[in-house]
Specification:
It is a single chain. By secondary structure, the chain is α/β, with parallel strands linked by helices. Strand 3 and strand 4 form a beta hairpin. The strands form 2 sheets. Strands 2-5-1-6-7 form a 5-stranded parallel beta sheet. A two-stranded antiparallel sheet has the order 3-4. The protein is globular. The chain is built from 10 helices and 7 strands. Helix 3 crosses helix 5. The longest helix is centred in the last third of the chain and has 17 residues. The protein has a single domain, classed as Rossmann fold, CATH 3.40.50.300.
Amino acid sequence: MIFERLAAMLNKVIAIDGPSASGKSTVARKVAAGLGYQYVDSGALYRGIAWKAAGMGCDPAKSAEVVAAMGRMKVYFFVEAGAVRYRIDGIEPRAEIRTERVSEQVSWVAAIPEVRAQVTQWLRNMAGLGDLVMEGRDIGTVVFPEADAKFYLDASPEERARRRHAELKPAGETADVNRVMDSLKTRDQRDSGRKTAPLKLAPDAQVVDTTGLSIDQVVEQILRRLRGNG
């Protein structure tokens, strides 16, 4: 236990926050690869809990049901292919947590204080697994307020809706761009307005507007800043 705590203190954490479809996931994964760090998608944990709770018959708007269901879940973390991944009750969820239905449910689940406390603890424990690039909505403000570097990615509402629409197509979702934009606005309001760990810009975070930029351009900009050349 003492060794794990010391390792966590020595390992570095790069926090990348921002709203849905701002490009965090792809950018963070590539930044982690560029640095040789482990990538962590914190949002996937909330999505996994929402997906599993729904499969257990829970109403995502009823916090007591979700908390009770989460207490029965067995979550296992492991490192593979440059990322920290997880299984819930022996299953590693993938495409099933990226549907529009889960996207609509996850903001309810992520607003539950007990869920956020548990996920925050899981995320902090991951620092013992190595140097991390962790993306989410409260990484630089709540999970790792003393992160070695913090970035906040954003983009115009139109750009974010276009990106999310493109992500949904492979999953068989057929919602048009306008409906996707409305869904993103609703989630932004919930994420920013929740009492526990709301989405907000950390005072010491570096803002990167990704509108009109390719993923590689954003990654290069962040790596340049981390290396002191930006």
